[in-house]
Backbone:
């Protein structure tokens, strides 16, 4: 009898080893999350605020598009809006994959600081999932976007026209152009210079990207935008590429210029500069971004 019981116990242990899920109370190992190419939501992100020279404030925003491939387009309105007040505050309607830092900034008047409870909330709905983030002027959220406190590093100075105005930081600068028709390559030129202050030593930068670089992406628009080079090479402070628009309409292209901090700045809020090129393709009327 004892031999029979012993055999039953051994058989049970063997079966449990072959089928771990059958062992009572055993925690099953979980597979790591599968990266999703599409179907996921977009979460807006408040990066912080900084004071402008005229006494106003800039609220810097980015986002996390949880998709690894899909680039959702969400027009300004119920699914892509700011509140209170006007829904359109210059936010993107085209969302690049994954985490994008300091993509744009919203200027609020100096009076915004009078009430510590003031909020400017960005809400985005993608694939039926809504995410919202409030921008504010809480002291602990102040960022050194225009000059890094530890190194004195400042963002690149950027312009989109040879003799045009310049811009620095997340708020950036805007220019506009007209294109006769869709389907034809259009030349884009950007000018960028930097203060040369390095955050990282040469050893850390060995084999890394150039200390000063620029990249173009679609920010708004009804069709597909294809760049000959979305990261064109800077030569003597000038980078040239072409963009082709699939259909007529109003577009905004974003230029992201970074310095030695790196293209993504390691999560820090300095030092890069945004520039926005408004493009009227096929004779539509340009509107502010």
Residues:
């Amino acid at each position: 009898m004892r031999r029979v019981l012993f055999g039953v116990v051994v058989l049970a242990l063997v079966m449990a080893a072959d089928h771990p899920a059958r062992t009572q109370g055993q925690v099953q190992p979980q597979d790591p999350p599968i990266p999703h190419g599409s179907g996921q939501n977009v979460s807006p992100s408040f990066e912080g605020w900084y004071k402008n020279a005229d006494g106003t404030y800039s609220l810097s925003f980015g986002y996390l598009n949880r998709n690894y491939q899909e680039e959702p387009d969400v027009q300004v309105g119920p699914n892509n809006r700011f509140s209170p007040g006007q829904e359109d505050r210059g936010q993107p309607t085209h969302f690049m994959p994954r985490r994008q830092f300091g993509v744009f900034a919203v200027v609020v008047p100096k009076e915004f600081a009078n009430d510590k409870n003031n909020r400017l909330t960005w809400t985005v709905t993608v694939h039926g999932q809504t995410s919202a983030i409030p921008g504010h002027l809480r002291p602990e959220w102040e960022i050194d976007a225009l000059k890094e406190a530890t190194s004195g590093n400042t963002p690149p100075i950027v312009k989109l026209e040879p003799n045009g105005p310049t811009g620095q930081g997340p708020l950036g600068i805007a220019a506009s152009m007209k294109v006769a028709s869709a389907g034809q390559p259009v030349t884009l030129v950007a000018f960028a210079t930097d203060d040369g202050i390095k955050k990282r030593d040469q050893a850390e930068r060995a084999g890394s990207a150039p200390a000063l670089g620029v990249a173009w992406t679609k920010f708004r628009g009804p069709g597909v935008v294809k760049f000959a080079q979305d990261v064109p090479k800077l030569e003597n402070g000038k980078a040239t590429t072409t963009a082709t628009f699939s259909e007529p309409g109003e577009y905004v292209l974003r230029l992201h210029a970074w310095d030695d901090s790196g293209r993504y700045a390691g999560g820090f809020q300095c030092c890069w500069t945004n520039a926005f090129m408004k493009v009227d393709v096929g004779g539509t009327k340009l509107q502010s971004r």
Summary: The two ends are 85 Å apart (CA to CA).
